[in-house]
Specification:
By secondary structure, the chain is of the alpha/beta class. It has three domains: 1-52, Up-down Bundle (Single alpha-helices involved in coiled-coils or other helix-helix interfaces), CATH 1.20.5.170; 53-266, P-loop containing nucleotide triphosphate hydrolases (Rossmann fold), CATH 3.40.50; 279-327, no CATH class. The protein has helices spanning 8-16, 20-31, 35-51, 70-81, 107-110, 112-115, 138-147, 165-168, 185-189, 193-196, 210-224, 249-265, 268-295, 297-311, 317-327; strands at 58-63, 88-94, 120-126, 152-156, 173-179, 199-203, 237-240. It has a seven-stranded parallel sheet with strand order 3-2-4-1-5-6-7, with helices on both faces.
């Protein structure tokens, strides 16, 4: 039976029951640009919204430059969390090639232990052209994972620089992973991504890199004093960790747990969720307007026409823009 021919109720129940294959297929649908897929996905999301477990999950964003050890860190922390019977989802965003548009999507192989556990769901996704460290439909993927009963959601970002705003607007806790000796220490002290971080981890604190990592921790701790107090009331810290040796993992989780206790007690956790929902409502509306604009047949025709004229140097960009905008009104 084709997935699209299944009854929406049946698919909802399979997701709520934690069927990982159905969950994976549902995420594939929401990522698709096919109109039939999108219609089915929208119906599914609406139906799940009335049926899904309203129990709280926690969403943790993890970023850091390529090579910082994000996947290894998540596996180490995830294995520890499974001891408390948590259900863990990992949404791993891989950078896409601007040339081939392809992506390696290798996170399942880098998290081999976690991926074989029935209480873990790992979904690698290509970032494509979407900016902000996430993929276009990461928000919907989080929703589906929560509906499937995963109570801890990790979003591993592309980690290509300071532009990680999108993930910041969809997680409860934002963790920055750094490594000593990578050459980006001073870059990290600049305002931007470090300002959004709730915790900074100096990973790979092991072997010959131990002393450098401890020095880096102290430098970042000093730098944090330059930043203003967070709205959450939380004071960010810097910690050392060795993912491959499982050192510092328990202490890091204790620190994250302290954050959630504080922000739930002072109500910031819930206020922030509402703020994020308002932000994503606007994002969805804006994306819908863009999609509808480019799916307008008259616009598509005029766009091709104006692109051809630009290639032939018959029109400038501003004139072409006016013609394309006017085409949807004709």
């Amino acid at each position: 039976m084709s997935f699209l021919s299944k009854n929406i109720e049946q698919v909802c129940n399979e997701i709520i029951d934690g069927n990982r294959k159905t969950l994976a297929k549902a995420i594939t649908l929401i990522e698709s640009n096919n109109s039939d897929h999108r219609k089915f996905a929208n119906k599914l999301l609406n139906k799940l919204n009335t049926k899904k477990n309203k129990g709280e999950s926690i969403r943790i964003g993890i970023t850091g430059i390529p090579g910082a050890g994000k996947s290894t860190f998540i596996e180490s922390l995830g294995n520890y969390l499974l001891n408390d019977k948590n259900k863990i989802a990992v949404l791993a965003i891989d950078p896409s090639s601007r040339i081939s548009k392809g992506s390696i999507l290798g996170d399942k192989t880098r998290m081999s232990q976690l991926s074989n556990n029935p209480n873990v769901f790992i979904r690698p996704t290509a970032a494509s052209n979407f900016q902000g460290g996430t993929a276009k439909n990461t928000r919907e993927s989080i929703f589906l994972c929560e509906a499937a009963g995963f109570n801890i959601i990790f979003i591993e970002t592309v980690g290509v620089g300071q532009n990680e705003i999108s993930v910041f607007e969809m997680v409860d806790f934002f963790l920055l992973l750094k490594i000593a000796g990578s050459g980006d220490e001073l870059q990290g002290i600049k305002r931007g991504i470090i300002e959004m971080s709730d915790l900074i981890i100096i990973n790979k604190t092991d072997g010959d890199n131990t002393n450098n990592s401890i020095i880096a921790k102290n430098e970042f701790q000093m730098a944090l004093k330059l930043f203003s107090k967070k709205e959450s009331g939380w004071i960010p810290e810097v910690m050392n960790c060795s993912s491959i040796e499982n050192k510092g993992i328990i202490e890091i989780w204790d620190k994250i747990t302290s954050y959630f206790k504080l922000t739930k007690d002072n109500n910031f956790f819930y206020k922030n969720r509402i703020k994020q929902n308002k932000y994503w409502l606007k994002k969805i509306i804006n994306q819908s307007i863009i999609d509808n604009f480019y799916h307008n047949e008259k616009v598509r025709k005029e766009y091709k026409n104006q692109v051809k004229k630009i290639e032939e140097n018959k029109v400038d960009v501003f004139e072409a823009y006016q013609k394309i905008i006017l085409s949807q009104k004709s």
